[in-house]
Amino acid sequence: MQDIQRGSITYRFMEMIWENQPIRSTELIRMAGEAFHWKKPTTYTVLRRLIEKELVSNEKSVVTAPVTKDEFLAAQSERFVEENFGGSLPMFLVAFNMCHKLSEEDLKALRKLIDEAEV
Fold first, then answer.
1. What is the pTM for the complete model shown?
2. CATH 1.10.10.10 region(s) of the chain?
3. Which of 42, 64, 85, 111 is 20 to 30 A removed from 12 (C-alpha atoms)?
């Protein structure tokens, strides 16, 4: 799954697709024009690039995202941990905890995840 920066205009365009799918491409062009001030060719260029990355499909002028937002974010997170921490979740958590101390609620949630994974 290809990378798209969260917060980027392309990511915001993907959010528009996720929130409105299935959506006719003509409606998507209208919405992108209003939200991003894109012209029709710009929208089709971005859409084509997302199709090439296999993040969306455009069948009979109906745009859908075969990958859910949650699946996309999970893959992005996994790639981040892999690339920056050698795939080690504990190393990521140590680094995270150095800057953002884990709250008691965070620790309880992590303990619950660990307990559920052990079953």
1. 0.75
2. 1-86
3. 85
In the numeric block, which tokens belong to residue 88? 């080690």
Distance, CA of 30 to CA of 112 (rounded, Å):
45
CB atoms within 10 A of CB 101: 8
Of 83, 86, 81, 64, give the one whose Cα is nearest residue 19: 64
**Short-list 9, 13, 7, 14, CA closest to 70:** 14
| Residue 57: closest CA among 90, 21, 81, 26 | 21
- Written out in words, the top-level CATH class of the domain with range 1-86 is mainly alpha
The 3-class SS string of the chain reads CCCCCCCCHHHHHHHHHHHHCCEEHHHHHHHHHHHHCCCHHHHHHHHHHHHHCCCCEEECCEEECCCCHHHHHHHHHHHHHHHHHCCCHHHHHHHHHHHCCCCHHHHHHHHHHHHHHHC
**pLDDT tens digits for 74-118?**
988 999 999 999 999 889 988 988 888 889 999 999 999 999 988
